[in-house]
Amino acid sequence: MTAYRADPAILDIEDAIAVPVVPAVFPTAKLRFRNDPAAAEIGLAELGDDEWLGHFGRFRPLPDNLTAPLALAYHGHQFRHYNPEIGDGRGFLFAQMRDTRGRLMDLGTKGSGTTPYSRTGDGRLTLKGAVREILATEMLAALGVETSRTFSVVETGEALMRGDEPSPTRSAVLVRFSHGHIRYGTFQRLAYLEDRNGLERLVDYCLAHFIPGAEAREDRYAALFDHAVSGAARLAASYRAAGFVHGVLNTDNINITGESFDYGPWRFAPRWDDGFTAAYFDHGGLYAFGRQAEALQWNVHQLALALRTVAPADSLIPALKAFPDRYEAALTTAMLARLGIAAGEHEDDKRLVAAWEAALAGSKIEPDRAFFDWRGGRRRHDHPAYDTPAFEPFVKAVANREAHAGALDGPYWSDAAPCSLLIDEVEMLWASIADADDWTPLQTKVESIRRMGAAHDCCERI
Question: For residue range 308-326, what is the model confidence (pLDDT) as tens digits?
Answer without folding.
Answer: 999 999 999 999 999 999 9
